[in-house]
Each structure stands twice: as C-alpha cells, then as structure tokens.
Amino acid sequence: MPRTHQTNLEPIQPEEAKELYLSQRADEVSESTIQAHHYRLSHFVQWCDEVAEIDNMNILSGRDLQHYKMWRRDDGDLNNVTMVTQLSTLRVFINWCENIDGVASGTHDKILMPSLAKNEDRRTAMLSNDAASRLIEFLREYKRASREHALVEVLWHTGMRIGAAHSLDVEDYDADGQYVELHHRPDTETRLKNREEGERHVSLSAEICDILDSYIKYKREDAADMFGRNPLFSTPHGRPAKSTLRDNIYQTTRPCEYTGECPHNREIATCEAMDRNKASKCPSSVSPHAIRRGSITHHLSEDVPEKVVSDRMNVSLDVLEKHYDRRGNREKAEQRRDYLENI
C-alpha cells in the first residue's frame, strides 16, 4: 500500500533536496564543510534510491531513518564516532527539509544518536614534539628552504590549519614585523574555516622568518594564481590545491623520510606508502591537522596560557580542551604545581 504524507508538504526528491541544501549552505560554511556534507548525504540519497525506493522526501518517517542508520553502519563498517558525525549532518539536513515543507515537522528529532563513551569522540592522532623536532632538524639540514620545509615550519610554529596556510599570499608575510596576516577571501577561492572570525595576525619567530625569507628568495615558484594573487606556497602553475599541500605533509612525515628507518619493519623500497599518491598509507605519516594538534599541545606544555593559544590558533577554549590538548593529567598537575610554588 502506498504510504501517505501530510497534505501541507511539497513533493521533493532526495537528490534535489540535497543539492538545494548544499547550495544554500555554501554561503554560510567553508568549502571543506560543503564537501564533507556532500559526501555524507550522498550515502543517504543512495539509500533512498537503491534500498528504500523513496523518491519523495514527504513520506520519510522515523522508522525509515532507523533503517538507514542500520544500513549505513553495516555498509560502511562504521564505528560510533563516525556514525555520530554522519547522523549529525543528516539531522541538520532533515531539519532544513522540514523548514522548506519537504519533510514532516519534528522528523529530525527521530534520528537516534549512538551513545559514546567518555572521550570516545576525541581524535588522538598528532605529531609528537619529539617527532616534530627530528623532522624539522632533518628538513633544516637536507631540504632547507624547500616548500615542504617552509610549510612544516609554519604549521608547527603557528598551529594554523592547512586551509589557512593555503590562503596565504607573499604579500601577507611581513618580514620586518615578523608576522603573517590571515584573510578570508571567498571571492578568490581561499576561505578560512571560521570566515571573518578567523582573520588575524600571527606572529613568527626570527628563525621562521629567516626560513621564509630564504624560501621566497631561492625556492618559491614565482607564479600567480588565476586571480592574479601571489600564493606564498606555490607551484609553477600558481596556487596548489589544498589536497596537494596535504599530500606534501603525508609524504614529508613518513618516518623513513627523515630517519632512514621504518618503524613498522617494512621494506622501504617496496612499501606501498612510497608511492607519492599513497603516502597516507604509512601508519606513521600524519595529516596537517595532526601537526596542528601536536603544535597546540606543545604550546600548552611550554606553559603558554590557554587564552593565548586559543587566540593564536583560532580555536575556542572548549574545543581546545576537548579535541586538542593532549597533555596527561600528571603533566597538567605538575604545571599547576610550578605556578602555585611561585605565588
């Protein structure tokens, strides 16, 4: 028997609803967020088409959403943390559909989230201070002032996101003032995660400035992007894609690159992670975000006040504590002791 729906709803297909939703959100969130939502919602559209045979969002029910949740977990072999991420995006989408009379009011509240154990949603991958020191020492000696070297130094020293580094122009760097300026420039395709609220000056040490000066003078590709801007981290064709810079980090942080040894007892010459496009397959290579997490933890371990770290890295104190601070309880206690003994 065909399912009925509320008469006040307007028919809309799942794919059309997804495209309208992404189009509306494009002016509100970063490009990376749009891409993430596109990926997550594509699974829902696929389920509607191939499994549930739902061609009109009006008939979507709480029971349908429970069936989708079970299908998505099994189809993707997803853990609780990933399921929460996927379902959170779906809830936002379904709520939006309610607001355009595509789904019955209150349907999004019927999406039941998996329960997470305490701290289960905290990602832990990060570049440790010891690994960062060895990596930077290697780059300074053997690949000094290369783009990879300059990029790693900036990411570790400032804790900025890869999107922020990607957005930098040569003109944003002030060698005399020893800082870089971060600007949200969506019209020329470089966005900051927190948009205008992410705009700021970030101070640099004299050592980092010396490295950037050498990179710009001797190694930087002198090429403008399609908008006539001069990207700080450039290629012969202008501004590289963020994925290119991300791949550079995966390649550079493979331990065999800077130690000459594989901690996983693999044959380096035949390891699949030696392929330029598969560097992330190395269990010990890290993403730019892992460098950010390690940098933030390092700053906190060096007694830099949390408010200073929050402002410098453009992250709220709550998120800083939950997702970035990797100091152990013992280390925090010893740091508090040092403060109290000086009172």
From TrEMBL:
Alphabetical list of Pfam families matching this protein: Phage_int_SAM_1, Phage_integrase
Domain Core-binding (CB): 12-98
GO biological process annotation, one example: DNA integration
Keywords: DNA integration, DNA recombination, DNA-binding
MF terms (GO), sorted A to Z: DNA binding
InterPro entries for this protein: CB, DNA_brk_join_enz, Integrase-like_cat_sf, Integrase_catalytic, Integrase_recombinase_N, Integrase_SAM-like_N, Tyrosine_recombinase_XerCD
Annotated Tyr recombinase domain residues: 122-337
Protein name as annotated: Phage integrase, N-terminal SAM-like domain
Species in which this protein is naturally found: Halopelagius inordinatus
Organism lineage: Archaea, Methanobacteriati, Methanobacteriota, Stenosarchaea group, Halobacteria
